[in-house]
Specification:
7 helices; two-stranded antiparallel sheet; 2 strands; 149 residues; mainly alpha; globular; 3% strand; single chain
Length: 149
Amino acid sequence: MICLQKQVLCTAARILRRQEDAKDAAQEVFLRLYRHLSRIRPEAVRSWLYRVTVNVCRDMVEKSRKFPAADIEADSVGGKVLFAGGKPVEAGIELEQQREILQRALQVLPFKERAALVLRDIEGLSTEETARILNSTATTVRSQISSAA
């Protein structure tokens, strides 16, 4: 269950860009999971969670209609900088710099492109699975990701 919590929280943080909003979204996602658990096939839980996470995030964005500056790096929700002997390792510093660049790039994308990019290229879902989650087509997902690049 911890893995699913991290999946939802990290995905929401990448899409919403604010830790508080991501936590609110994750709470709503797990409330919906609890309500619908008897109707979800065990093998479909992961995809269902992605779909509901994107939908909850979309609802939150539509309600707020604003995107304040990011106050977190999405991957820091569950991850840590690498340390050795109390000092950051160069690889850890480089990874943090890459995360900062990624977070800044995600900030400027429209919601649809950001969601497609997060699901396919960051979460590692296939184009087809991303399309199903976004109620779209594989061609549209590829187009959204191309537009984001």
